[in-house]
Amino acid sequence: MPMTHVNALAALVAAVLTIVLGAVWYSPVLFAKQWMAAQGHTPEALEQMKRKGMVRAYAVSFLCYLVMAHVVALLASYTQAATFAQGLWLGFLLWLGFAATIGLTSHMFSLKPIAAWVIDAGYQLAYLLIMGVVLALWR
């Protein structure tokens, strides 16, 4: 496998953008109500979840996004993706081949409405597109 350099700052920016996107995606501005309904949560249950370890959940999520950004940067380097379109294509392929398929497979056993998967898969598509573009352009 060829040696490659990962731009740590670009990976950090991609991870931060992913957290910011999630804050907007799952907010009342976009899909909070639909997501709560699809998950079967009430506003009271969400408040209780917020009091129980949300800091840990966000910290673990951010670490996962950092790892993901590093891997996307490696793949951008290996595939020599260096343009906006190539970054979009890389993000889309990663979503289609991994995020969408793994998420849908596990969703099929969750007994939740398909809307729950659609909202989550949409977020995953959006952040993988952003990661692909940021990390392809900023190598």
Task: Tell me what the structure shows.
- The protein has 139 residues and is mainly alpha-helical.
- The protein has one domain.
- It has six helices and no strands.
- α1 crosses α4.
- The longest helix has 25 residues.
- The model has no long low-confidence stretch (mean pLDDT 93).
The sequence of SSEs as H and E is HHHHHH
Largest sheet: none
Strand content: under 5%
Helix run count = 6
The secondary-structure class comes to mainly alpha
C-alpha geometry: globular
- The quaternary organization reads as single chain
Share of helical residues:
over 70%
What's the overall average pLDDT, rounded? Answer: 93
Unreliable sequence segments? none
Q: What is the radius of gyration?
A: 16 Å
Total E-strand runs: 0
- Number of domain modules: 1
Termini Cα gap: 18 Å
Summarize it.
The protein is an all-alpha fold and 139 residues long.
